[in-house]
Amino acid sequence: MDLLEYLARSNHCLISDLRYRDPGTIRIDPILERSDFSLSQWNDLLQYLFDNAPRFESCGEAKAYLASRVLKT
């Protein structure tokens, strides 16, 4: 299972629903605790959720960006 699918399942919704939800309503705790997803999957997830997301060089940077975007709203 890839990261995007895992996030959707953790939020009890379809992948397509994630893009249209208010970011503040997306539960990200389950994926922030995981370390088995690749950097590529993190970058793909962020591009899917936030069209203008930068590409990151580490999973830690990608997780921090996601947390800042979700907690900001």
Key words describing this protein structure:
mainly alpha; 5 helices; single chain; 59% helix; 73 residues
Structural class given helices, strands, pairing? mainly alpha
Uncertain segments of ≥5 residues (pLDDT<50)?
A: none
Strand content: under 5%
N-to-C SSE string, H for helix and E for strand: HHHHH
Helix content: 55-70%
Number of strands: 0
In whole angstroms, how far apart are the ends?
28 Å
C-alpha-based Rg, rounded: 11 Å
Number of helices: 5
Assign an overall shape.
globular
Biggest sheet features: none
* Total individual domains: 1
Integer average pLDDT: 92
Question: What do you see in this structure?
Answer:
This protein starts with a helix and ends with a helix. The relative contact order is 0.20. With 73 residues, the protein is mainly alpha-helical. It has one domain (3-72). Helix 4 (39-49) packs parallel to helix 5 (59-72). The mean pLDDT is 92. The chain is built from five helices and no strands. 59% of the residues lie in helices and 0% in strands.
Quick recap:
The protein is an all-alpha fold. It has helices spanning 3-10, 15-20, 29-32, 39-49, 59-72.
List the topology elements.
Blueprint: H1 3-10, H2 15-20, H3 29-32, H4 39-49, H5 59-72
Helix pairs in contact: 4-5
